[in-house]
Amino acid sequence: MRKDLRLDKRTLSKSKRQKFSAADNRISSVSIGIVGASVLISALLMIILPDCMKVCRTVLKMKE
Question: What is the model's pTM?
């Protein structure tokens, strides 16, 4: 009887809802997300761009 009452926890709606996040279209949350993404991208570009410029200069000097 106990086996008949058991449910697979992976198929319950609670476990399915835990894997998905709800959409939040408020202007404040969207703007915070955009600012956060732009800060991360600009920080990465500040690290990567000088290296790329140095590689390009080295390649151009090797062609000459």
Answer: 0.56
